[in-house]
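User: quick one - fold this with zinc ion bound?
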Amino acid sequence: MTQVLCGQVLTYATSPFDGAPTEAVQMHESVAFRDGMIVGVGTRAEMMALDPGAQVTDYGDRLIMAGFVDAHVHYPQTAIIASWGKRLLDWLNSYTFPEEMRFGDATYAGMIAERYLDTVQANGTTSVCSYCTVHRTSVDAFMTAAQTRGMRVVAGKSTMNRNAPDGLCDTVASAEADNQALIDRWHGIDRLSYAITPRFSPTSTREQLDMLGALWSANPTCLMQTHLSEQTDEIAWVKSLFPEARDYLDTYEAHGLLGPGAIYGHAIHLEPRERDRLKETGASLVHCPTSNTFIGSGLFDMAGLMAEGQRIGLATDTGGGSSFSMLRTMAAAYEIGQLTGTPLHAAQLLWLATVGSARSLRMQDKIGNLAPGLEADLIVLDLKSTPAIAFRAERAEDLWEAIFPTIMMGDDRAVHAVWVNGVRRVARTAQ
Ligand code: GUN
Ligand code: ZN
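Assistant: Sure. Structure tokens for the protein plus zinc ion:
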């Protein structure tokens, strides 16, 4: 059956980083979808003309837009989010690695995967790109939970063979066999896809990086995700482990792990050569603002990187990041923009959390916007979800002033409804 949702429907015609931010946006009365695909945006009458028997849900003055796309997360870190007081390398050893050891247990992995995906859906996130642990069970659990929820997700087994506990290390041969088995089992099934996932260069030998590079060229429709230039201590460590490398990016490039479809999380302390190569190869960078402040990593150069035409997404980096919410993540991106002298417009923040992240995953032809032919992942945001936000929004003189308080102060209470693949999955009230 065709569904028609009415409200303030927000779509992007172009990038709000290319000209006046608000000119990139088009507002409509309604959106229509059928069998999981969007069939139209326009006036209510136009949408009803597509199918006079359509079921209509009127969301009043609420904002209807594409679901959020979180381009870099670690679902296995759900239970250790907000762990106190460490910087990256100590944080990994103290909190992350002990927790990740538990994911060889299929029951535990399944419980966390379900809890994680339910939490992000309640926060308006309809797609994520996740790291799993070294264990095949951790990927199976995540893909199964996403498949049950009809979500488009990307995930891959974190591959490590040094500088991590034995229980989280594989070998070159076992990593190759596991990755290939997981690609065969999950990649391209329903809305699931696989990302080859070297955790970061310090935890793989050159031989393992070579193997992953070869595996990627043998499976070129897979994405490749890893970490790049997050903290200065980490960068110094990479330099000592790979003295032959020109820079951090070169530890991937030399092993076949750079190209379109490569997604690098953080990318804060980049050298000029790294920026040039990222741009030339069409790789993606993912800004993780709550993580970069929580772990104390540094300030991402959004304005400079956008100006040079880099492909950039936005992400929570749960649980290095301190939130599951892309609203909170947009607020942190705004604050980092302020600290670097370039505040982001609300139209730019919402674009980063939808179209930008979808582009970073090379999925902009499927998700991240509302247009005929895209998949029906939509959220309905209440722009007056708490008394304080409502009080502020009442003073708004235009749409953007009405939206910005929700970006800065909103949480899951602002997420009124979530439709995934054309099916309503979250509803705050009967609608
Ligand atoms: N670098 C390598 N592993 C990780 C991780 O799990 N989180 C973050 N933030 N950085 C990393
Ligand atoms: Zn990460």
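One thing worth noting: The two ends are 17 Å apart (CA to CA).
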